[in-house]
Write a structure and sequence with these properties.
By secondary structure, the chain is α/β, with parallel strands linked by helices. Helices cover 40% and strands 19% of the residues. It folds into two domains: 175 residues, Vaccinia Virus protein VP39 (Rossmann fold), CATH 3.40.50; 57 residues, no CATH class. α3 links the parallel β1 and β2. It is globular.
Length: 270
């Protein structure tokens, strides 16, 4: 769904995932690189909120997105803040190709993007092309069997094939008052909203098992590690902290998180 123009209020409500900064700092300190010398890219940056935040923290960061409309929606606020949006935010082609030079970026991250990529093989190849040897990737995205599908806020619909069974499940979820809070849909009829949600689910979401994602990135030259189990938020929950600290329960917890909750993929380009 398209977003309106980026505003100061949006920035006040925006919080970058702390794991991005955690791993960015780990990379920087490992190679003893100054913040301003680490070439960072937000792949799928949307309206570029993360670019603003990370530049304010001193990082040399750019953004890229396939939706030129989202990038243009950042223009007003970028200009207001004295930022050149055309230099900082770069459009991707329809097949997710970029104009960046080979081996350019040290650190590339994405937030809630991988599940929207239809041709992940081609995208991973492009990401490998623009990543320097030894460069790090961090991709954060929902697990393929998460219980509540985040984008439509409906349970289990993405478990079903993209056919009339899924459409019927979406209709049932709507009747049970499960639906996304999307601007522009409140005045639609039930049928029109159903068609809108179903079309979005079919054309814009592509959930994959983590072993499939791992295989694709590995073939493109990355060593892949799933690091969800190391997220500090786990330690805020006593039961999860206990499970993650036990040798015999840690693998099971890790599998459950990566299957039903969230994936944090860390990649190093060989």
């Amino acid at each position: 769904m398209a977003h309106p123009d980026l505003t100061e209020e949006d920035m006040c409500n925006y919080t970058i995932n702390p794991e991005v900064i955690t791993y960015l700092e780990r990379f920087r300190k490992k190679y003893r690189i100054r913040q301003e010398d680490v070439k960072v890219l937000d792949w799928g940056c949307g309206r570029g909120q993360s670019v603003i935040v990370l530049r304010e923290l001193g990082y040399n960061v750019l953004g890229a997105d396939i939706d030129i409309g989202n990038l243009k929606n950042a223009q007003s606020l970028y200009v207001k803040r004295g930022l050149n949006w055309e230099e900082l935010l770069h459009p991707l082609s329809a097949d997710a190709k970029s104009s960046f030079p080979d081996n350019h970026f040290d650190f590339i991250f994405s937030q809630e993007v991988i599940e929207h990529v239809e041709d992940l093989d081609s995208t991973a190849a492009e990401l490998a092309r623009i990543t320097a040897q030894g460069g790090m990737h961090l991709h954060l995205y929902p697990a393929h069997l998460e219980i509540i599908e985040d984008h439509l806020n409906m349970p289990l619909i993405h478990w079903l094939p993209k056919n009339q069974f899924r459409k019927a499940a979406i209709a049932l979820a709507m009747l049970l008052n499960f639906h996304p809070d999307w601007p522009g849909t409140s005045g639609m009829s039930f049928r029109d909203r159903l068609n809108c949600y179903f079309e979005y689910s079919v054309k814009h979401t592509f959930f994959r098992a983590r072993n499939q994602v791992e295989r694709i990135f590995s073939l493109c030259g990355f060593d892949v590690l799933f690091v969800t189990i190391g997220n500090p938020k786990l330690r805020e929950h006593p039961a999860l902290r206990w499970l993650s600290n036990r040798r015999w329960t840690r693998p099971l917890l890790n599998w459950a998180l990566l299957t039903f909750k969230r994936v944090e993929l860390l990649g190093i380009k060989r």
